[in-house]
Amino acid sequence: MNITAYVVLSGILFTIGCVGVLTRRNAIVVFMCVELMLNASNLALVAFAKQHGNLDGQIAAFFVMVVAAAEVVVGLAIIMTIFRTRRSASVDDASLLKY
Amino acid sequence: MIAFWILAPIMVIAALGILFVRKAVHAALLLAVVMISLAVLYAGLDAPFLFAVQIIVYTGAILMLFLFVLMLVGVDASDSVVETIRGQRVMAMLGGLGLGLVLVIGLGQITLGTAVGLDAANEGGNIQALANILFSRYVFGFEVTSALLITAAVGAMVLAHRERLTPKATQQAQAAKRVQDYAEKGTHLGPLPSPGVYARHNAVDTPALLPDGTAAPSSVSKVLTARGVVRSAPALAEDIEPFNRQVGGAAHAGGRDAATPASTTEPAPATGEDDQ
């Protein structure tokens, strides 16, 4: 069995996540796109673990999941705090430091 | 491999949907489709432990957290279509297209040969094999992970916690404030008017009518107004017009004519003025 198709799918999903981060304005949707990118990289890691016949790739994917969980918790808390003070979840509205 | 060819198009379509749907809740549901499909792919790639973790941690915990925050942030937090940087959307699309082409063509051209397969590595079971590596070679990373998780938990608590700076208003203080508002600004003392209760229609999305026939915006929930689903009350009585004319309801007609222009579904900016 060949894992090239898995890696190509992972690349496509990563690209879609990337475009989502660049184009969407809602902070929560931007965050979901970051999650999509992390998931895409996980798929590549698991596929390469199968290719090379050892489990290091699966361990790496597991660590990525742990880091993603921690990141989501803190990130959503930040979004909540920003929404509480500015009544908006748009990434364009939090631009006070620009000036 | 059959599962892959079935799930891959579904995943790509769902992921593309995240880019184009307007509501964040729909994006979260599409992300759930992608994540569950990924879990099935992990099962096909000899990773039963990651299959379970993907469903429990990602779909179960992380996506639920997303939906929680979406509910807290509210229904009207939809995406704005205004571009703050001109041409940014087009540039992002072009850049993404370029990246996608480079990745797909580049990855499609490499030859990896046949996979070694995990049958030897998963000899005594996938979970046992993973635990052997995790608690020997990667034990330091595992310990660091625990520090990271504790830091994240404390950070989330600090960020989400709000210190109460003023004492909580008691019922007595609220009543006194109401009476004071009535004395100073003339705000109505009693409760807000209830939404439309009519002979043939009774629903919370229909505003009550004031004696002069205009709609009372304070009688419908602000959430419904934000969603734009408030109905017009006089329109519900359109078909009784002929009967009204037959019985000669001339006295009634004046009130209904005055009501018709006020039957807008838009929220009035000054909600408090209506219930004076």
Helix and strand arrangement:
The complex is a heterodimer of chains A (99) and B (276).
Chain A: H1 4-23, H2 27-52, H3 56-86
Chain B: H1 2-20, H2 24-44, H3 48-73, H4 88-109, H5 126-134, H6 139-160, H7 171-185, H8 222-227, H9 241-246, H10 250-259
Describe this protein's structure.
Chain A: It is found in: Cell membrane; Membrane. Chain A: Keywords: Cell membrane, Membrane, NAD, Oxidoreductase, Quinone, Translocase, Transmembrane, Transmembrane helix, Transport. The complex is a heterodimer of chains A (99) and B (276). Chain A is mainly alpha-helical and 99 residues long. Helix content of chain A is 78%, strand content 0%. Chain A has helices at 4-23, 27-52, 56-86. In chain A, helix 1 runs antiparallel to helix 2 and helix 2 (27-52) runs antiparallel to helix 3 (56-86). The radius of gyration of chain A is 17 Å and the shape is elongated. The mean pLDDT of chain A is 89. Chain B is mainly α and 276 residues long. Chain B is elongated. Chain B has helices at 2-20, 24-44, 48-73, 88-109, 126-134, 139-160, 171-185, 222-227, 241-246, 250-259. The model of chain B is unreliable at 251-276 (pLDDT under 50). At the A-B interface, helix 1, helix 2 and helix 3 of A face helix 1, helix 2, helix 3, helix 4 and helix 5 of B.
